[in-house]
Amino acid sequence: MQTEKIEIDNSGQGISRAMEEADQFAQTLQLSKKGRFHLRLLTEEALEMIQAVAGGFKATFWLEWRDSIFRWSNNGTCALHIDAVADLNYSGKQELISVSTEGRNTAPRGIMEKIRELVEAGLYGMEESLKFQTEYGTGILDYGNLGMLDGGMSQALYSWSMQKYKEGVAGSKSQNEVQAEAWDELEKSIIANIADEVRVGIRNGSVELVIVKEFER
Fold first, then answer.
1. Nearest one of 135, 154, 165 to 206, comparing CA atoms
2. pLDDT above 90: residue 132
């Protein structure tokens, strides 16, 4: 079961409609009050992040539900999807990248801000992703240590997993301040505490964001 696909962008197009669709989907699934609240929070986090992405792009939002594999269970898994494609020509991308890089004075704070950086990097060129990796050291774009070398997501060239990121940070949080701060961000993050998984897949100027949460009914 899935919702209608809704076109959204960072100008606000489709955002209200997407929120309404999420609320209606929760009611259709007969989620508990807590479940409806969690689905709304996850949707808000994702859409707020999309609105903060720089540049021009086209994106599609939808929700998908899969029942539990156990026949005796009414539980299931909901996946929130946002697929985005850059809507700029090469010169436009380079101009945006130049302005963005020159104006960036500090590393992104919070897991959703870091995911936004990753989405922008995916939309506007993987070469810039590698520059961000150097700039942010062991941050979110540390592919080898934090799970970026996983090409199974919709045949993406690169994919990032929040769970793998958590594992990487947890394993080194006692070793340096950067990872300790990253762990603190995770503990304070709404999405990191509610979602079971967040994945970002990148392929040739397109980005696929999927937020997964198992619900009890």
1. 154
2. no
